[in-house]
Design a protein that fits this description.
The chain has 6 helices and 6 strands. It is an alpha+beta fold. It has a 4-stranded antiparallel β-sheet with strand order 2-3-1-4. It is 39% helix and 28% strand. The chain folds into 2 domains: 38 residues, Arc Repressor Mutant, CATH 1.10.1220; 84 residues, 2-Layer Sandwich (Alpha-Beta Plaits).
Length: 171
C-alpha cells in the first residue's frame, strides 16, 4: 500500500466526514478508497463501452399492461446471449419485480437494459453494470497460482452420488 497526501477544502471534508459517519467507515482512508473505486468504475463504464461486463437489470412493471409480457419475452429471446438468469417476484396484485443478470459487451448490455426499462408498462428500472475481466466470464478455462486449468462444464456430466441410507451407511 502507498501513502498519499491530499488537500481538501473544508466543505468537501465535511461532506466526506458525513459519508464516513453515515456508512460506518472505520477511518477516512477506507472511505476514500471506496469512493475512488466507485469513481473509477463509473469512469470505466463511461469510457469502456467495448469492455465485457456483468449487470443486474432491476425493474418493476404492471403485469396487466397490454402485451407487455409478450414484448418482454420477445426482447429477451432476441437477446438471449445476454441473459444469464432472472428472478420474478409478485409485489402486489398488479405489480411485479424482475431482476435479471446479464453479461456481455457493456454497450449491448446497456442498450438492452434501456430498451426493457423503456417498454410501456415498466414503471421503474435501473441497470447496475460491473466491469469484469474476460477470464471471469469464461469459467471453463482459468488459472490458479500461475498454472492453467481447463474444466468441462456440460449438462451431460453426472451428478455426484448420494451416500446410501440405512444399515450399510451406518457401518
Amino acid at each position: 500500500m502507498q501513502r498519499v497526501t491530499i488537500t481538501l477544502d473544508d466543505a468537501l471534508m465535511e461532506e466526506l466526514d458525513a459519508i464516513i459517519a453515515a456508512r460506518g467507515y472505520q477511518n477516512r482512508s477506507e472511505a476514500i478508497r471506496d469512493l475512488a473505486r466507485a469513481g473509477m468504475r463509473e469512469a470505466a463504464e463511461d469510457a469502456g463501452q467495448k469492455r465485457e461486463c456483468v449487470a443486474a437489470l432491476v425493474y418493476t412493471y404492471d403485469h396487466a399492461a397490454r402485451q407487455l409480457s409478450k414484448r418482454l419475452t420477445t426482447a429477451y429471446h432476441e437477446h438471449h446471449e445476454l441473459s444469464l438468469a432472472s428472478l420474478h417476484v409478485h409485489l402486489d396484485h398488479d405489480t411485479c419485480l424482475e431482476v435479471t443478470v446479464l453479461k456481455g459487451n457493456a454497450a449491448d448490455v446497456q442498450q438492452f437494459g434501456e430498451h426493457v426499462i423503456a417498454e410501456r408498462g415498466v414503471r421503474h428500472g435501473k441497470i447496475v453494470r460491473v466491469p469484469v475481466e474476460l477470464a471471469a466470464l469464461h469459467r471453463d478455462s482459468h488459472s490458479h497460482d500461475g498454472e492453467h486449468h481447463h474444466h468441462r462444464h456440460d449438462a451431460a456430466r453426472k451428478p455426484a452420488r448420494r451416500p446410501k441410507r440405512g444399515r450399510q451407511a451406518r457401518r
